[in-house]
């Protein structure tokens, strides 16, 4: 078990970085599904344009296997699409340096670090992370299971919610 005081420090840091909310969740509450990558493949302009997007990312089954090796994750809630990835990268590093060597972050949406991705070798390895959905995580089911709001954004004027997480053991 991770000490509560340590978790509070990580959650406070996520909020200082711009997360609206952050909480510790059970890794077992993270839902993966095959449909998620289909939504990337058929419907997302980012498909196959970045090393952080399918088909370059783990399948939902590979992701499920990775998640099974963790007990916890810190789930963060943001209002800006690029925020979760930047926050989880910083938070992942902080958690790693605190002695949790398995810390790994997953962001939100396609990578926006380069105008055109170098498909052979990422030039921003410390800042680039795949999104939850790119790895087959059902963000809607995961977020709802953990008490956060999320709805389909039907119009650009609708209020949107974006999420990221850091797996921690």
Q: How is this fold's topology laid out?
A:
Layout: H1 4-16, E1 21-26, H2 34-41, H3 60-68, E2 72-78, H4 83-97, E3 104-106, H5 139-145, E4 162-168
Antiparallel strand pairs: 1-2, 2-4, 3-4
Describe this structure in words.
- The chain is built from five helices and four strands, in the order αβααβαβαβ.
- By secondary structure, the protein is an alpha+beta fold.
- The protein has one domain.
- The chain has a four-stranded antiparallel beta sheet with strand order 1-2-4-3, with helices on one face.
Keywords, separated by commas or semicolons:
5 helices, 31% helix, 169 residues, alpha+beta, four-stranded antiparallel sheet
Report a brief summary of the structure.
This protein is α+β, with helices and mostly antiparallel strands and 169 residues long. It has helices at residues 4-16, 34-41, 60-68, 83-97, 139-145; strands at residues 21-26, 72-78, 104-106, 162-168.
Fraction of helical residues: 25-40%
- Taken in chain order, the helices and strands follow as HEHHEHEHE
- Give the terminus-to-terminus CA distance: 8 Å
Helix segment tally: 5
Domain module count? 1
Strand segment tally: 4
Query: Beta-strand level of the residues, as a percent range?
Result: 5-15%
Over all CA atoms, what is the radius of gyration?
15 Å
- Major beta-sheet overview: 4 strands, antiparallel
- C-alpha geometry: globular
Query: Unreliable segments (pLDDT under 50, ≥5 consecutive)?
Result: none
Main sheet: which strands, in order across? 1-2-4-3
Structural class by secondary-structure content:
alpha+beta
Oligomer: single chain
Mean pLDDT: 92
């Amino acid at each position: 078990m991770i000490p509560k005081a340590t978790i509070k420090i990580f959650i406070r840091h996520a909020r200082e970085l711009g997360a609206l909310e952050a909480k510790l969740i059970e890794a077992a509450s993270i839902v993966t599904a095959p449909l998620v990558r289909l939504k990337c493949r058929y419907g997302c302009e980012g498909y196959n344009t970045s090393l952080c997007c399918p088909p370059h990312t783990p399948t939902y089954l590979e992701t499920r296997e990775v998640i099974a090796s963790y007990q916890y994750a810190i789930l963060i809630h943001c209002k800006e699409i690029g925020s979760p990835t930047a926050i989880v990268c910083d938070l992942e590093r902080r958690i790693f340096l605190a002695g949790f060597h398995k810390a790994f972050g997953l962001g939100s949406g396609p990578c926006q670090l380069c105008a055109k991705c170098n498909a052979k070798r990422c030039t921003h390895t410390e800042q680039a992370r795949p999104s939850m959905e790119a790895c087959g995580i059902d963000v809607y089911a995961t977020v709802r299971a953990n008490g956060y709001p999320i709805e389909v954004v039907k119009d650009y004027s609708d209020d949107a919610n974006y999420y990221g997480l850091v797996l921690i053991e």
